[in-house]
Fold each of these.
Amino acid sequence: MANHYPLKSFQALSETAILFCWAEFIDPQLNQCIHRCKQAIANKFTGIIVDIVCSYSSMIVHLQPPTTANTALLEDMVRHIKKSIELPSAANKVQSKLHHIDVYYGYDAGWDLAYMEQQCQLTLQDIIERHTAPTYQVFANGFMPGFAYMGIIDQQLILPRHSTPRTGIPKGAVAIAEQQTAIYPKASPGGWLILGQTAMSLITADELSPTPVLQAGDQVKFNAISEQQFVQQGGSVMRNSDAW
């Protein structure tokens, strides 16, 4: 639908950075729209762009000096963004990568599964099926390198994060909070609810230039595996008591 997600505002943040904003809410289709705009801008203005960073409802375009964010350039980019929004999504499809991620969902690895069973009035199998059913959109990377915010989770799994964060969440912990799911790329404090653990690394092994495996705009599909399969993939179950 044309202008279903209209551009709300735009401004120059500096001489070489331009911010474009849409309505502030979490929605996979809005995020897809923003990535279509990113693709259109990248294709049209090749050579003057250093990077384009997308989030839930915004996009920052970083320019290559000596190009500056002058009025004419802003207006030209806005025209191309609006044109991209008005195109049918089928004719303006975003090229994204689909990641399949194996997860061990067990009470020892999923520290909050018993709590979720009680709060959501669901069985363990229900929780697993509801978490693995969707194909998630990666909205943004943040909090720490490789921490990808994904959504939207099944409505019956929506719970707030813990009021008091844990001091130690293990690397590979698969978690949820509110409408989103994520994976902790390394051990850290955190307040998200833990459903399971994965052996997959979320950061590339390139020591000179480590980058997140899950990029904004990518798609993620979780797959439930046994503890034996998890261990065979190189995983080691981190139990809750081990973190304190």
Amino acid sequence: GIGMGLRSPIAAPLFDGSAPPALRWLEIHPENYLARGGRYASLLTQARERYPLLTHGLTMGFGALAPFDAAYLRTLRGLLHELRVPWHSDHLCFSQVDEVYLHDLLPLPLHEEAIGVAVQRIQEAQDALGVSIAIEPISWYARPPDSPLDEAEFIAEILRRADAKLLLDVNNVYVNAMNHGFDARAFVDKLPLERVVQLHMAGHHVRPDGQRIDSHAAPISEPVYELFDYTMRKLARPLPVLLERDDEFPPFAELAAELERLASIYERALGERAA
């Protein structure tokens, strides 16, 4: 069913009964809760009492050349097992160089060496965390040089070699397709959809020059709803779908309406499959 990210500005309506019946679960960023007390611990406790939870990381970056910090993995493993999540997701990207975090999700070059690095990092994480890993391909704004491979085939090969799962962000696919001139539906068709375990839905901003920026700070656009409908019909099975909003929060009633619309598209796709 449909879920939302647990964010402080919208926590109150999530817990006071204001959320619509369409809201079935919540997603958290573990980095916000590891070894932290106070309001963070209180929010997590309230969330666990009311909803199933999934976890989505922000800092691992499965294209990183350096191995992950062992102490961090031990702490993360403890939280994941405490929450009993079925998998943990993070991004197919890199975000640090020489132990300097860049606070951005940067694209990998599409070549064989990058595939090998990503597979190594995913397997390292799966072994250390004791849960399956789902990778999220990112939105990107410049293609790194020396990228001879097709992006969908690049993703599929990493998933195959690492035996990993796929978190498919529908907005990312649309933003990339519009910015770089490819067919979003054809891209979805080329992915190994049997590995998809979760979808993300979000809004984006359009700059005056037409470039689209994946902001998570705007309503979902009509073309992204349409691509979601197409993707759900291709998948034709129940799975968690996240409404992802991280900034510029509107009145909660507007988010509730987005949740209900996503639920309607979701249920219609599953109903047609059943019929």
